[in-house]
Amino acid sequence: MTTLGPVLRIVVAEDEAVIRLDLVEALREAGYDVLAAVGDGEAALEQIDQLRPDVTVVDIAMPGMDGLEVTRRAAERTAIVVLTAFGQRDLIDRATQAGAMGYLVKPIGPENLVPAIEIAAARWVAAHELKTEAADLARRLAERRDIDRAKGLLMAQGLTEEEAFAALRQRAMDARTTMGLVARDMIADQS
Prior knowledge:
The protein has two domains: about 10-135, Rossmann fold (3-Layer(aba) Sandwich), CATH 3.40.50; about 135-190, Arc Repressor Mutant, subunit A, CATH 1.10.10.10. With about 190 residues, the protein is α/β, with parallel strands linked by helices. It has helices at about 15-30, 40-50, 65-75, 90-100, 110-155, 160-175, 180-190; strands spanning about 10-15, 35-40, 55-60, 80-85, 100-105. A five-stranded parallel sheet has the order 2-1-3-4-5, with helices on both faces.
């Protein structure tokens, strides 16, 4: 299960120094731990890689690497809240496709910043839990498929389905391993 700490850890990436300082102040006053505040996308990625923040607040329009590219590259490692001076639908869609979990239009105050941070963090955790569950389900389905194929191999040798299942189970117990691994080995031996 993916969880975040009791105090969210945040990196801020905003090229306008006054806005960056205002954001840091508002976030700290709201009780967040601001790990770093940077003015460009490259520095944002460096800080994300080094500090592993829970949330990154990133401006779309920055020199060099823009906020959308930062989002594309970092959305697997941190929840991203995108900031922009524009509320255009196309920009919102591009930010969402890049992996942003929140979107704020400037000017930004604590009344909209704090909810955006909290919602982005919660959405990021939920999305990663779903990915973990989906991967686990895919693994279990593949194991089930392998067991069914191995049962089929044993049934082709004259065993009933129940006998084939019991034989797989016994081999797994004897080898102190899973039925899935026994089934994969049987399938590999037949190839």
